Amino acid sequence: MIRTNVRTMALSSTLQRDQNGRNGRAPRAAVPAPRESRFDRRLGEILAHATDVFCEKGYEGASMRDLSRASGMSLAGLYHYFGSKERLLYLIQKHTFSTIVEELKNRLSGVTDPEQRIRIFIQNHLEYFMANQSGLKVLAHEDEALRNGFNSEVAAIKREYYRICLGLMEDLKRSRKLSFNARTAVMSLFGMINWIYTWYNPRIDGRAQDLAEQMSNFILSGVCGAGTAVRATAAVRRRGLHRTLKGHTLKGRAFRRTARS
Fold first, then answer.
1. 94, 214: one domain
2. Is residue 257 part of a domain?
3. DSSP string covering the chain, please?
4. CATH number of the domain within which 71 lies
5. How far from the centroid of its chain's Cα atoms is residue 113's Cα?
6. Sign of CA dihedral 186, 188, 194, 196
7. Would residue 255 count as lying in a domain?
8. Residues 193, 130: contact at Cβ < 8 Å?
9. Are residues 43 and 91 in the same domain?
10. Residue ranges making up the domain that contains 5
11. Residue 20 to residue 53: CA distance in whole angstroms
12. 256 is a domain residue
């Protein structure tokens, strides 16, 4: 149980800074923090336990008492520091998307090849969520559970993540002179990688890196093949139109010759 000590002071301070940010008040100047403080670890543990509870019982089915038992924090303490289970879900989603976006940006830094950047996106996503499958299930199932202003900040991070992926697809499309719908490609990719928790078996499906390579090959072959197919279809149509027009021209000439005779 968290008692009144340095960790609880840190927890209270952090939650207050987060609340100030949501209320539009400027936070105080941040003091450089250790790589991972005891508070960070404890907060991470609480969010991990909450994730497991939401995964097992669903957001609607979980109670603050369930979360208290799972986390080892008193019910009074849980209400004092978090206020509601909705706030815990908000922190889970915010932490998850902020972490994955930050790690993605770090990995993409310095990489210029459009195809490789898409591969990095897919591997980064799979590595994180294959190590946190409960979290992926909670995010997928409780996507619209946040209300009361909690959803706006998370939605902004999710939009940023989507725009990054859309930008990567547009870059590939432009650099390879392909013709495909980038939004359709992005949504198809998310549909493929966001449901791995329903079927992934490490004994059968291998490591995240191996699975990421296979999925990258699928999506890249698809969009590149689609772009090539569109160009080929357009070329066939142009040739067909040319032959049709030429045929009509020849028939017209023959008709005129017959008419003159």
1. yes
2. no
3. ---SSHHHHHHHHHHHHHHHHHHTPPPPPPPPPPSS-HHHHHHHHHHHHHHHHHHHH-TTT--HHHHHHHHT--HHHHHHHH-SHHHHHHHHHHHHHHHHHHHHHHHHTT---HHHHHHHHHHHHHHHHHS-HHHHHHHHHTTT---TTHHHHHHHHHHHHHHHHHHHHHHHHHHTT----HHHHHHHHHHHHTTGGGT--HHHH--HHHHHHHHHHHHHHHHHHHHHHHHHHHHHHHHHHHHHHHHHHHHHHHHHHHHH-
4. 1.10.10.60
5. 21
6. negative
7. no
8. no
9. no
10. 1-21+36-83
11. 28
12. no
Cα(219)–Cα(259) distance, rounded to whole angstroms?
A: 59
Residues 168 and 142 in one domain: yes
What single letter denotes the amino acid at residue 4?
T
Amino acid occupying residue 66: D
Global pTM?
A: 0.71
Indicate the range of 29-33, 102-106, 138-142, 248-252 predicted with least confidence. 29-33
Kindly report the CATH number assigned to the domain that includes residue 175.
1.10.357.10
Number of domains present in the structure of the chain:
2
pLDDT tens digits, one per residue of 227-249: 554 444 444 455 555 555 555 55
Question: Using CA atoms, how far apart are residues 108 and 168, in angstroms rounded to an integer?
Answer: 10
The answer to the question of residue 59 being in a domain is yes
Token pair listed for 43: 């907060």
Q: Are residues 54 and 68 in the same domain?
A: yes
